[in-house]
Amino acid sequence: MEQWSFPPKFDAAYAPPPGSRYWFPQRETMPAADRDKAILARLKEVTRYAWDRSPMYRRKWEEAGFHPDQLKSLEDFESRVPVLTKQDLRASQAKSPPFGEYLCVPESEIFHLHGTSGTTGRPTAFAIGRDDWDSIANAHARILWGMGLRPGDTIFIAAIFSLYMGSWGSLSGAERLHARAFPFGAGAAGMTARAAMWLDLVKPRGLYATPSFALHLAEVAKQEGYDPRRFGLEVMFFSGEPGASVPAVRDRIAELYGAHVIDCGSMAEVTPFMNISGTAETDGMLLWQDIVYTEVCDPRTFRRVPYGERGTPVYTHLERTSQPMIRLLSGDLTLWEDGPNPCGRTYPRLPQGVFGRIDDMFTIRGENVYPSEVEAVIAKLESYGGEHRIVISRDGAMDELLVRVEADADCVARGAAAQDALRDAAAKALSKMLGLRARVEVVPANTFPRTDFKARRVIDDREVFREMNARLDDRKA
């Protein structure tokens, strides 16, 4: 296969022919069974590499009775190698700060430092070696090529440049693609309006952000007198939160900008995080298995589920050497399929993307509900004003689901009858989708703050519940 070795070495001058659909035609279109054989051989190398260099992996695998010499099949890998959790990583870094006992290169080779925010406990440090940074850039350039972006295109990166890996990973891929990278960033006061000004000025072909920011940006652009469809964007790719694979959200962004919307992104720890990504021709997200080997597993047994079923992704690096993740448990939920893809790539596919984190799921009267499912319903409503909040609580013995939905300016102007119609339509659609009753409150547009990053739309608060019910009861009186 093209440039397939471990540790990986990539030709920095390589580029496919301009008319090629594929960066690496053989790797991307080969029969899945042949790719699986190559992945098995690579897994033997990766596990041996980690066994020799990482006390954490060696100790964990010895406790599980696993040795790299035991790998004879992908089924052996699945059944013998224990999953790795984020708690394992935090514990390893607490024992051997700051990078943990799974740093497999000398500290002198570390090129980039990133990490989690640490707002809910000890932060996790990401140490990325110089060679790994080159591998990440090559992988992301390859995937950007699959999205239809090309050398010389301007790619506008509208995401926070700090600890967040999404912005930096997108920048590395754009640079390796030999595109014109515009690392604009996000987050500072007034920056969204300036983003609209620059987008109108430079007319980039591609844009990277979170779906929430793209929706917020369109609102601000219109307030500033710009038409987002005149920015010239053709390819918009997103990560950081569910949305770009939710049809209503995807279609809304596409309509606002007149661009093709592509979902991508797994976990910061797994960077190259674009290892799951759609392409110019294929919606949902492909599992680029020869970059990061991904299993979709039962969240209890950690064994692969059949195609067509739901499970949690488990990731294994095939091209990382500094802090390799080997069977890292994501905690997300998705559904995978195997079958022909419109783009011709022979990878498995997540047709609905990643639904969200399993621990983001909440249960209302025995029904499991994901925030992305609520968003998929609300975003389709004709008079939806752009934001909503999900309020979950308990009144006496019963769980309750209440959804606060913004109405757009036109709905508000048409008065109470239009707002009542929006409320009833939302309640009916939610009941049909979720299989349970939800109470709905309609509020004016711009009631909820917009975000430059990931939206937080779920509130679990009994006092909010009581106040909202009082308002609803007053409305009916």
Commentary on this structure:
The protein is α/β, with parallel strands linked by helices. It is built from 14 helices and 21 strands. The protein has helices spanning 25-29, 32-53, 55-64, 74-80, 86-95, 130-147, 165-176, 191-202, 211-223, 247-257, 371-378, 409-413, 416-434, 462-476; strands at residues 110-115, 125-129, 154-157, 180-182, 206-209, 235-238, 260-263, 276-277, 285-287, 292-297, 310-317, 328-329, 332-335, 349-350, 354-357, 362-364, 367-369, 384-395, 398-407, 439-443, 458-460. The strands form six sheets. It has a five-stranded parallel beta sheet, sandwiched between helices. Strands 10, 11, 12, 13 and 15 form a five-stranded antiparallel beta sheet that branches. Strand 3, helix 7 and strand 4 (180-182) form a beta-alpha-beta unit.
- How many β-strand runs? 21
Mean pLDDT: 91
Distance between the termini: 71 Å
Q: Please, how many helices?
A: 14
The computed structural class is alpha/beta
The amount of helix comes to: 25-40%
- Provide the gyration radius in Å: 23 Å
Sheet with most strands: 5 strands, parallel
Q: Are there runs of 5+ residues with pLDDT below 50, and where?
A: none
Please give the order of strands in the largest beta sheet: 4-3-5-6-7
> What gross morphology would you assign?
globular
Beta percentage is 15-25%
Layout of helices and strands, plus pairs?
Blueprint (H helix, E strand, L loop, with lengths): L24 H5 L2 H22 L1 H10 L9 H7 L5 H10 L14 E6 L9 E5 H18 L6 E4 L7 H12 L3 E3 L8 H12 L3 E4 L1 H13 L11 E4 L8 H11 L2 E4 L12 E2 L7 E3 L4 E6 L12 E8 L10 E2 L2 E4 L13 E2 L3 E4 L4 E3 L2 E3 L1 H8 L5 E12 L2 E10 L1 H5 L2 H19 L4 E5 L14 E3 L1 H15 L1
Helix pairs in contact: 2-3, 6-7, 8-9, 9-10, 11-13
